[in-house]
Structures are given as structure tokens and as C-alpha cells.
Amino acid sequence: MKLLLTFSRKGRADPGREPVIARVVKETGVLINVEKANIDSMAGEVLIDVPDRSADQIRQRLEELGVSVHVMENAIARDEGECIDCGACISICPQEVFSFDEEWQLRVNSERCVLCGKCIQACPHGALSQQG
Ligand code: SF4
Ligand code: SF4
């Protein structure tokens, strides 16, 4: 399951200057896969992937450490009314989230998404968006 972590790096007690992910891995023994990280001097946003069975435990511990955690159930949403099954998103996605089924209809496996945003920009019909 993918979890989007956000935290402030302002002040002294914030989690942004602490190795919270490393700490949670050490404490829980759960391996966390960091898929994307944007961190600057003011704030951080990190996308992690954790085993489904451990997601509640990881989420709870991160929140205790001051991290805001958002469960990404459906990272990329497709508006079926707008999609014309052109396949542009298939070509551009680095994670093979999109594919055609046997009837050339678009299939979306959003569990693989790392929220790079390339497909949203590439879609000629504005059919794709990122879930908040
Ligand atoms: S790029 Fe947009 S219109 Fe084309 S298949 Fe993907 S979602 Fe559908
Ligand atoms: S945001 Fe990036 S990884 Fe996710 S579906 Fe779009 S192109 Fe693929």
C-alpha cells in the first residue's frame, strides 16, 4: 500500500530533521520502500510503499512522530467519459500502470504508480488526475 507522508521542517520539534522513516523501520522491522521524495528546507513530501498487512502499524507510528499520512488508495484517477483509449499514457508511464485489455480498453493498475505526473500531462483529453 502506498502512503504519502508530509511534514514541516520548520521549528525544532518537527519530524523533518529526524530520520523518522529509518526509525520506524528499525522499531517495527517492516521494510519501507521510498518511491519518491521531495524535501527542501521548509517541508517534505515522501511517497512510500509498505506491505498491506503492516500499513496501519506504520501509519500509526509515523503519525505519533508528527508526520501527516495519507493513504493513496487510487493514486491516479481516470475519467472514463473523457478517455478515448488512445494509449498515450501507456507509452509515457515509467511504471507500466496502464495497459490495454483484450478489447483495447484501457486498464489501470494504480498500485504501481509513483505519482510522477507524466501521464496527466500527456493525456490529450484531460482524463487523468491525481487523487488528493
Ligand atoms: S492518454 Fe488519456 S485518453 Fe489516452 S488512453 Fe490514457 S487516459 Fe485515455
Ligand atoms: S503518475 Fe507517473 S507513475 Fe503514476 S500512472 Fe502516471 S505516469 Fe505512471
Automatic annotation (TrEMBL):
Please give the InterPro entries that the UniProt record associates with this protein: 4Fe4S_Fe-S-bd (IPR017896), 4Fe4S_Fe_S_CS (IPR017900), ACT-like_dom_sf (IPR045865), Fe-S_Ferredoxin (IPR050572)
Molecular function terms from GO: 4 iron, 4 sulfur cluster binding; metal ion binding; oxidoreductase activity
Work out whether the entry's keyword set contains Iron.
yes
The yes or no answer to whether the keyword 4Fe-4S is present is yes
Q: By its UniProt entry, which SUPFAM superfamilies does this protein fall under?
A: 4Fe-4S ferredoxins, ACT-like
Q: Which Pfam families match?
A: Fer4_7
4Fe-4S ferredoxin-type domain ranges (all copies): 74-103, 104-132
Give the record's keywords alphabetically.
Answer: 4Fe-4S, Electron transport, Iron, Iron-sulfur, Metal-binding, Repeat, Transport
Protein name (record): 4Fe-4S dicluster domain-containing protein
Taxonomy of origin reads:
Archaea, Methanobacteriati, Methanobacteriota, Stenosarchaea group, Methanomicrobia
